[in-house]
Write a structure and sequence with these properties.
Two copies of one chain form a homodimer. Chain A has nine helices and nine strands. In chain A, the strands form two sheets. Chain A has a six-stranded antiparallel β-sheet, with helices on both faces. Chain A has a three-stranded antiparallel β-sheet with strand order 1-3-2. Chain A is of the alpha+beta class. In chain A, a hairpin with a 6-residue loop joins β7 (190-193) and β8. In chain A, α5 (83-99) packs antiparallel against α9. At the A-B interface, α1, α3, α4 and α5 of A face α1, α3, α4 and α5 of B. Chain A binds a DNA duplex through α3.
DNA sequence: CCCCGGTCTTCCACTGAGTGGAAGTTTAGT
DNA sequence: ACTAAACTTCCACTCAGTGGAAGACCGGGG
């Protein structure tokens, strides 16, 4: 090779995955050189790999020539274990119908919440979360609901890190946060007010199976209508409960 | 190499993709040797690739040790162009609320329909389609709605092939099928009765933008309640229309 | 007009990552 | 205990992948 295999030798597969990994919810479309930068691979290598991925429709081009995840990957992604979503969706559905608000389902992944399903109507509040998206745990309702039911050691290692502060209302002080989590455990649900986005607030309940929170259901409403959240807590808890019930039954079988 | 590079030399990337491509909606979980068989790659190669993919959580193991698409790929898939889904979802939502039936959205991909979104309640009929799933066009409502608005040459090449016959009610005779398509064009929607699955029937309407069917909206109900479909056609057409309207507006911008 | 900063594409000589047949190991079924 | 199938490991060979560099392309501003 001219430049030749200088690198100690990463496997090709890991390079392919590095290219794909360059995409995330904050960067859904990238130029060739963006990918090279973000993956740390030489441009010529990225160029070749992208070409091959494009051929298979794992990546596709936007109208302005940038790259984005292709239909083929979406299709593949749909095959991922969907037990939780499948069984929860009808209940989210029902919750949406009774409340008319943004409804979503999230699980914990690492130190973040991962949104796995969402039901929303037309006049929904502009909402940050997106199916497949991630957010930190402490400023979100679902995040708090999940965090409150994690073991002690997990919570303290979460709090030990520097916590992001997306709005002035975000609670980042460890002492106050753990008192809040205790309250969430006690009352069975979490409330947030403009802690993630100015203009919206949320209520969330954990889906508890055998004492563990396997997921959380959240409602997001405009902060003008924050007082209405109280009214919505009951159906929210009911939905979380139903999902937990179905989940437990599905796992017994 | 012991056996060594006998093959003329496919790129590693293509092998990775061949492994992923072994998964489809009919085969969401596969054993190592299933993958080898389906991808045509030697077992030892598959073994290594799968190991690397697993490490990255592109694949994961089921409880019984078989492989399935991992969370990471699902997440990635969520980044795929979702304009259509995003804009259609609220209307599907609304259609579900007014009808209470299985609602889904499909597009044409090649000679098949690809289901891209679905809203369903609890007491839904067991339904074959699944988000990300594919079905042939002629036995499904959405398929007929889409096919009816394809250009002449496409329809004839579709009809020229040997058509599957999943139930005794499936219409496969080219003459009769093209007469049906003409009727669909004339009345603006398609009806099917147990053509794909015994026990369920459907109504579907194309989402027409500039004379082209960019997608189709479908309703599936139990065949016992087939007569009720008539009543549901009106909201169905309305939903398809709204989606078409939003779509056209989004594309103008 | 030309030059500059950026992005994308092509080239090519070298070499180690990938290869796959075969042998060994574990698992399941009879 | 025997058989068959699925899985894992091994290893010598070699070609697919490599990446630096040079070239093409595209605006935009002097």
């Amino acid at each position: 090779m001219a430049g030749g295999a200088r690198e100690p030798g990463r496997s090709v597969t890991s390079k392919v995955l590095a290219v794909l990994g360059a995409f995330d919810s904050a960067h859904p479309q990238l130029s060739l050189s963006d990918i090279a930068r973000r993956s740390g691979l030489p441009l010529s290598t990225v160029h070749r790999l992208v070409g091959q991925l494009e051929e298979w429709q794992a990546l596709s081009r936007t109208s302005d020539g940038r790259l984005r995840v292709g239909m083929r990957l979406w299709e593949l992604g749909q095959l991922a274990p969907a037990r939780l979503q499948d069984l929860a969706h009808p209940w989210l559905q029902e919750l949406f119908v009774t409340t008319g608000e943004n409804v979503h389902l999230a699980v914990r992944d690492g130190m973040e919440v991962l949104y796995v399903d969402k039901v929303h109507g037309r006049r929904a509040v502009p909402i940050v979360s997106r199916t497949g998206g991630r957010l930190p745990m402490h400023p979100t309702g679902v995040g708090k609901a999940l965090l409150a039911h994690e073991p002690e050691w997990f919570v303290s290692s979460y709090l030990a890190r520097r916590l992001e502060r997306p709005t002035p209302h975000t609670v980042t002080e460890p002492g106050r946060l753990s008192r809040e989590l205790a309250a969430v455990r006690a009352q069975g649900y979490a409330l947030t007010f403009e802690e993630m986005t100015l203009g919206s607030c949320s209520a969330a309940a954990p889906v508890l199976v055998g004492g563990r929170a396997v997921a959380a259901v959240g409602l997001v409403v405009s902060s003008r209508r924050a007082r209405e959240l109280k009214r919505l807590v009951e159906p929210l808890l009911a939905a979380a409960d139903r999902i937990a019930h179905d989940y437990a039954r599905a796992h017994a079988a």
